[in-house]
Amino acid sequence: MTEQVVTRFAPSPTGFLHIGGARTALFNWLYARGRGGKFLLRIEDTDRARSTPEATQAIIDGLKWLGLDHDGEIVSQFDRADRHREVALEMMARDMAYKCFLTQEEIEAFREKAREEKRSTLFRSPWRDADPATYPDAPYVIRLKTPEEGVTVIRDEVQGEVTIRNDQLDDMVLLRSDGTPVYMLAVVVDDHDMGVNTVIRGDDHLNNAARQMGIYTAMGWDLPTYAHIPLIHGPDGKKLSKRHGALGVEEYRDMGYPAAGMRNYLARLGWSHGDDEFFTDTQAQSWFGFDGMGKSPARFDFKKLANICGQHIAATEDAALLHELQAFLAATHQPTLSDAKNSLLLAAMPFLKERAKTFPELIEKAHFCLADRPLEIEEKAAKSLDSVSLGILGELTPHLQSASWGREELEGVLNAFATARDIKFGQLAAPLRAALAGRSATPSVIDMMLVLGREETILRLGDTTGTGAA
């Protein structure tokens, strides 16, 4: 029977959910979901000075917005400190760890002397094989006994076999002198106890794997499958930072990128499935694997993100898109829409979503059905409302009042009117746009009229020509 895949995302709650962390979470989620496995969430909150409840909530909110659901309860690493200490003491009982009484000053003096003598600064404690009978009554740390000879081989699904000589690894601290566990110990114990058997994380953790494998070996635990993925760089090839633009997923949410588009785009950063650029979650879960992973850093490209998001907006069902739009308005603290406005939006959605890449773009295109009369006419649109154009609109109104309100009928009325007045359709459309939307760039006048309906269309024409009721 094949072992169930168990992955995890384990962020430190010291700030927002970084876009790189979001991509790591996504890869773990895709790998587990595509194999009927579990995707777990652990908050690595051992750094009490920097960890905050607000940051933890921001991470949870970011994952929720991205649609990355986790299995089971959220695990707090800090709450498991007693278990971490228990494992360190067990390793000492197995003679796989030891007490070291050297002070930080003594260790730094050793390293300084090594630097002066141009020797390796790799620290080896004189307490490693000391007789317990010689232990002083003084503070101590507990260190792992790293093998002094041979090599540690990381068999990585992305990086291949990575070999590190054991004489390049120090005896890392497991418990500090105050009895608190270090991060490196906590990660291994938590992964083991949570049943995590597949560790997918950034390749900046590759060296950590060699040291963490020492704990697995000392405890006789099975090693997880490792997959160290390339980092995300900016368009200039440098490490992604604030100068490249937004870093936190909530910033992308607030800019109005749809979550499905973000998942699709992030999946393509460092991973590929042939030439496929646009795909659904179901396809991504089915396709995702380490064989499609690259080793080089991926470059974040806002244009590609916008393009993918536009395709997802266009492909989303109208009602679902309206629901996402309402969630965007709520998340960005914008006024909620009335039932009447929601109905108009839903009716307009088929043509609104065609070329919008973000929700603000969608809202801008929907201005005609969200604005209330009397409309404010923007300066550019007002230029198309000269006395001649106003006269044309005034003449057109009775024809619309008696027209059947269907696409073909309205097109027939407008074309016949333009022909009879010996004007081009554009000369009629421009003032109509201004009257119906107050803008010069709008959806087609026929689309707007069909969504607004006869009564609202006539009222807006009357507001513009000065012949309607207030």
Polypeptide structure, described:
By secondary structure, the chain is mostly helical. It has helices at 19-33, 53-66, 81-93, 104-116, 183-193, 206-219, 249-254, 259-267, 281-287, 302-315, 318-331, 339-352, 359-365, 367-370, 379-382, 387-401, 407-420, 425-437, 445-465, and strands spanning 6-9, 38-43, 75-76, 97-100, 141-144, 151-156, 160-165, 173-175, 198-202, 225-229, 232-233, 298-299. Helix 16 (387-401) packs across helix 18 (425-437). The chain is elongated. The mean pLDDT is 94.
Key features?
470 residues; mainly alpha; Rossmann fold; Glutamyl-tRNA Synthetase, domain 3; 4 domains; three-stranded parallel β-sheet; 12 strands; ligase; tRNA binding; cytoplasm; ATP-binding; GluRS_core
Strand coverage percent: 5-15%
Number of strands: 12
**CATH architecture field of the largest domain:** 3-Layer(aba) Sandwich
Spatial extent as radius of gyration:
32 Å
Q: In terms of structural class, how would the helical and strand content be classed?
A: mainly alpha
| Poorly predicted runs | none
Number of helices: 19
CATH topology of the largest domain: Rossmann fold
Shape field: elongated
Instruction: State the end-to-end distance.
Output: 75 Å
Q: How many independent structural domains?
A: 4
Organism: Pseudooceanicola albus
GO molecular function: ATP binding; glutamate-tRNA ligase activity; tRNA binding; zinc ion binding
Function: Catalyzes the attachment of glutamate to tRNA(Glu) in a two-step reaction: glutamate is first activated by ATP to form Glu-AMP and then transferred to the acceptor end of tRNA(Glu).
Subunit structure: Monomer.
